[in-house]
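Handout, section B. The chain below has 174 residues.
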Amino acid sequence: MKSISAYAIPVIILVVLIAGMYKGVKVYDIFIEGAKEGLTTVIRILPSLVGLLVAVSVFRASGALDLIIYAFKPLATALSIPPDALPLAFLRPISGSASLAMVSDIIKTHGPDSFVGRVVSTMMGSTETIFYTLTVYFGAVGIKNIRYTLAAALIADFASVIASVWACRLFFGG
């Protein structure tokens, strides 16, 4: 498996280049055009990303996260969500980097093979940074009204949190 993963990306790149040459596509020109378009997109969404990063920093520094966790602890207990996993459940929709730091802290404290370690690892892989994703994708195409997308994404995230706990209980006990 290690040797396969070492050669996977170079093989994929080679296959794309060969397929492009076979079809007569100017691969390098298309690559340069895509890179220009990517830079244009980055410049267009940069103000939204800066605003999101500032909001996340203010949220964490203000103590609002601690207050929310305290308020939701009884519900988490009723749903069998480990209380130590709650910070991740609330941070993951907002920030990927803050979530990763939270998972790292939880795993350092409880260990990777603990129930909470497994839950947060599963949760990290099955949930999404909703606000970042909406900012990037909707901002890239200029959509300002997210309508029902946010509600649907938050419901899906909640279902993923519950499913993570359920799957870990099913496969690992706890």
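Note. Residues 148 and 154 are 10 Å apart (CA to CA). Compare this with the example in section A.
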